Amino acid sequence: MAAELDLVVRARRVVLGRAEVPAAVGIAGGRIAAVTTVDDAPPAARTVTLDDDEVLLPGLVDTHVHVNDPGRAEWEGFDTATRAAAAGGVTTIVDMPLNSVPPTTTVAALDVKRRAAEGRVWVDVGFWGGAVPGNRADLAALHRAGVFGFKCFLLDSGVEEFGHLGAEEFAAAMRECAELGALLLVHAEDGRFLDDSALDGVHYAGFLASRPDAAEQAAIELVIAQARTTGGRAHIVHLSAAGAVPALRDARAHVSAETCPHYLTFDAEHIADGATELKCCPPIRDAANREALWAALAAGDVDIVVSDHSPCTAALKEGDFATAWGGIASVQLGLPAVWTAARARGHSLADVVRWMAAAPAGLVGLSHKGRIAPGADADLVRFAPDEEFVVDVAKLHHRNPISAYAGRRLTGVVRETWLRGRPVDDTPRGRLLRRREP
């Protein structure tokens, strides 16, 4: 008989690939050692049996999180961001290179960020590098140092430390990433289409008009053209404009795309004037656009759903739609928000897991994450898919008690999260991840 396992988790419902089945998951040394039928569960030092109203999910992988630490830790820090992630069933995040000071645009800056995170993370954390004007020579060294790829902007990023790339600079960055075999993430809005004259103080309609669909579509067409020219891989972050989907469908060999829980949940028609907690860039568009994004997910034209967790202090969300910070903090709420909307449209939990765990893990080459299978990390979530709750900002773990979801009724409660076979508790056991070579 094989050696006794550390733990067996038994459940009537386990998400395995595209199905939900009864199963027993055996864990040894922080990894999944076996997946069997419930009756064939191997011997273990300890057995946990989920309640009948619970489903065992793999830990989610969120590849779009702004931690802002160091430099702007008053907005968010590694401790609070990763506690929030764990509370939301997210066991792996990849941190964005901007909003921290210094931004992650050199190896020295990456080292600073790693030191800030060391010993302060409750989930596993990887890092994106940044592609900004003047740092093309730094990209290869960052790639060797283990970043998962590079993020760039095609218009003003909103922070002075992280400049945006003009057309020629973007082409050069795309060529460099192609040579490195690195993924280039793009905030795809074309600033020539923005219209600040449309901004109308507290009125959401004015903000929406100031950042039209055309700005996203034009930028995405540029990204597609450069990816095809260079043979490199690009990824569109936080897709909002569903009108860009046909072009993305035709370019799937070169360009992937993500969308976010807020674009799948809210619609412009129901955003109240002055509700700056819902300001983000690109903006939340109308209900028809939201439904088109859902259709694109179902068809496989949009690859993943990630939070774009972009928090700030309460003071920065004050003011109107012209002056308030554009970002939504949601790493703790992504799973229930997406599940609430997905089940209403006939999607399964397996669909949600594919969009929020397996596919993001695949995007960054973490084959041992985001799935329940032998050899994978034993990152698991005890999830009650039918339990409802009302979002109370006082119960959220991110640093500042601001949420676009405040007071909203959602379905699906994370009751427990395991990282490498151990429940996430008061001890930070997360690891800092590096990109794995193929």
From TrEMBL:
Amidohydrolase-related domain boundaries: 55-424
Entry GO CC: cytoplasm
Listed NCBIfam families: allantoinase (TIGR03178)
Subunit structure: Homotetramer.
Cofactor: Zn(2+)
Protein family (similarity comment): Belongs to the metallo-dependent hydrolases superfamily. Allantoinase family.
Pathway: Nitrogen metabolism; (S)-allantoin degradation; allantoate from (S)-allantoin: step 1/1
Protein name as catalogued: allantoinase
Top EC class, one word: hydrolase
Species in which this protein is naturally found: Jiangella alba
Any one GO biological process: purine nucleobase catabolic process
